UniProtKB/TrEMBL annotation:
It is found in: Cell membrane. The chain crosses the membrane at residues 7-27. GO terms for cellular component: plasma membrane; plasmodesma; side of membrane. The lineage of its organism: Eukaryota, Viridiplantae, Streptophyta, Embryophyta, Tracheophyta. Belongs to the glycosyl hydrolase 17 family. SUPFAM superfamilies: (Trans)glycosidases. It comes from Amborella trichopoda. The keyword Lipoprotein applies. It is an enzyme of class 3 (hydrolase). Signal peptide: none annotated. Its EC number is 3.2.1.39. GO terms for molecular function: glucan endo-1,3-beta-D-glucosidase activity. This is glucan endo-1,3-beta-D-glucosidase. It catalyses: Hydrolysis of (1->3)-beta-D-glucosidic linkages in (1->3)-beta-D-glucans.
């Protein structure tokens, strides 16, 4: 912005203060899209290559990482990229207990890089209030944040915000959005002091918001295109507020706004710390595909760059970090967990995307049609992945067989599934038997990457992954199917 010099002298001071106000708005404002850079993948491009990809291919100037990885922070030196770093959940207890522990964490993890690396946010923990196994630390969260803020102040550092990312499960009610309210077990003990801290320090409520998960958990009740920002005709009117919604993400964000307002903090700004859509998943996971992932992310970016805000917060810019830079193959859990990336580990794109939001749909190459937007109705089995590391399969086989009586009876010597008598053959039977038995109670077909779902009946093969057709199909061993 160029200021006209033709102001009266008497107005100059005002002009300057307006000018500086404008500059600071630009700094705290700026382009609203960033990206999460997680590293739980084998063979990921190096930190230096990754930062290069973020600058040249992804083209965003905000990133969020899940630790204070020195290689990444070093690679960011003298770049214009602003970075949000994270303090691990396990450190919260000590850091809340003493100011010294906090000072020491900041000295070790921040000072070696700041200010040449533009560290702008320290996130204390990750979805702490979603993890009941660390419940004793919940009430230590805000004290830890306060200590970190004090450590920064003592060092004269005033341009690093302190926050903590929370998931939608901090709410006990989220629909309709006006009914949003925090869970009773945390509302007074954690949320109230947290909101007070965020207000006092002018920080943000960092929210992990996944419309995909809400949609997939409520199959049949939410329009897919409404979730993907693709249905221009469908709207939802909140009966209490009268506000009209055009996509699921806005509903989720406004549910948080309502919950904050109920505790007396209606104006704390929200940053979306994670959102995205999986580009692949297990056979029994609906809607996880490249088509939906591309549309979700492209439309999300257009919405955010338009700065339309949400119905409760019209025209408010909402900073958002897309999840995620890479598909990360070392994440446990269901198949979708490993497929949130905009990039494959080798740095090539999963789908085209312009993170500046200027490209029109018609300017993109056509995408593969989605084949799993309907629930999968066939049978599914769980078998050893082709090319699995055989030395790791043996221990996993023992683990599967140890989980319950009878799981592995059919592969005992002389029984119907003993042949082929190979580790991979036995493990496929055992992984499947284990998964069929425990999938209803949350068991996954994963085994540290050694197993995957298939819609092809493994009973058809006498030798898993037969190399000739004659090795397939002796048919006396029946793999159970769900
Ligand atoms: C063993 O299997 C039987 C029959 O399926 C079941 O009732 C029992 O609870 C199982 N025991 C264990 C330890 O899993
Ligand atoms: C990682 O790279 C090595 C060497 O290029 C390759 O052998 C291995 O299969 C790769 N692992 C994965 C999970 O892609
Ligand atoms: C917490 O502090 C104790 C005592 O100083 C130390 O032994 C322990 O390693 C610390 N834990 C973490 C996670 O830093
Ligand atoms: C979503 O929108 C696309 C394109 O507008 C359309 O082809 C598809 O049928 C819609 N899907 C649903 C589930 O409404
Ligand atoms: C939009 O949603 C409405 C109501 O669910 C549905 O009838 C219509 O087909 C949808 N349109 C698209 C393009 O998905
Ligand atoms: C938001 O921006 C639009 C377009 O600039 C404007 O018409 C509308 O009045 C604004 N709404 C509020 C609440 O500021
Ligand atoms: C990168 O990995 C993807 C997925 O595995 C693959 O399709 C693509 O060919 C690879 N690209 C290069 C340049 O190796
Ligand atoms: C294969 O698994 C074994 C046992 O878990 C492990 O020691 C080895 O490093 C693995 N090899 C590769 C290439 O991952």
């Amino acid at each position: 912005m160029i200021l006209s010099k033709a102001y009266f002298f008497g107005l100059q001071l005002l002009t300057f203060s307006l000018y500086f106000h404008f500059i600071s708005l630009q700094i705290s404002g700026g382009f609203p899209i960033g990206i999460n850079y997680g590293q739980l993948g084998s063979n990921l491009s190096s930190p230096l290559q990754s930062i290069n990809l973020i600058q040249t291919l992804i083209k965003v100037s905000r990133i969020k990482i899940y630790d204070t990885n020195p290689q990444i922070l070093h690679a960011l030196t003298n770049t214009k990229i602003q970075v949000s770093v994270m303090l691990p959940n396990q450190a919260i207890q000590n850091i809340s207990a003493t100011q010294e522990a906090s000072d020491s964490w900041v000295k070790t993890n921040i000072l070696p890089f700041y200010p040449l690396t533009r560290i702008r946010t320290i996130l204390v923990g990750n979805e702490v209030l979603s993890d009941s196994s660390i419940e004793p630390t919940w009430t230590m969260l805000v004290p830890a944040m306060q200590n970190i803020k004090r450590s920064l102040r003592a060092l004269g550092i005033h341009n690093i915000k302190v926050g903590t990312p929370l998931a939608m499960d901090v709410l006990k009610a989220s629909f309709p959005p006006s009914s949003g309210a925090f869970r009773d077990d945390i509302a007074e003990t954690v949320m109230r002091p947290l909101l007070q801290f965020l207000k006092k320090t002018k920080s943000f409520f960092f929210l992990d918001a996944y419309p995909y998960l809400t949609w997939a958990d409520n199959l049949g009740s939410i329009d897919l295109n409404y979730t993907l920002f693709m249905n221009q005709t469908f709207t939802y009117k909140d009966p209490n507020s009268g506000l009209v919604y055009r996509n699921l993400l806005d509903q989720m964000v406004d549910a948080i706004v309502s919950a904050m307002a109920k505790l007396g903090y209606p104006r704390i700004r929200i940053t979306i710390a994670e959102t995205g859509w999986p580009n692949a998943g297990d056979v029994d996971q609906i809607g996880a595909n490249i088509y939906n992932a591309a549309h979700y992310n492209r439309n999300l970016i257009r919405k955010l760059t338009s700065r339309e805000g949400t119905p409760m917060r019209p025209n408010q810019t909402m900073f958002t970090y897309i999840f995620s830079l890479y598909n990360e193959d070392q994440k446990p859990g269901r198949g979708t967990e490993r497929h949130w990336g905009l990039l494959y580990p080798n740095g090539s794109r999963v789908f085209e995307i312009d993170l500046n939001g200027r490209k029109l749909d018609s300017e993109y190459e056509p995408l593969p049609e989605p084949v799993n937007n309907e629930e999968f109705k066939g049978k599914i089995w769980c078998v050893v992945v082709h090319g699995a590391n055989v030395s790791a399969v043996g221990p996993a086989l023992d683990h599967a067989c140890a989980q319950g009586n009878g799981t592995c009876d059919a592969i005992k010597s002389g029984r119907e599934c003993y042949e082929p008598n190979t580790i991979v053959g036995h493990a496929s039977y055992a992984f499947n038997a284990y998964w069929q038995r425990f999938r209803k109670s949350g068991g996954t077909c994963y085994f540290d990457g050694l197993a995957e779902q298939t819609a092809v009946d493994p009973s058809e093969f006498s030798n898993l992954y037969p190399t000739t057709i004659s090795e397939a199909g002796h048919g006396s061993c029946n793999y159970p199917a769900a």
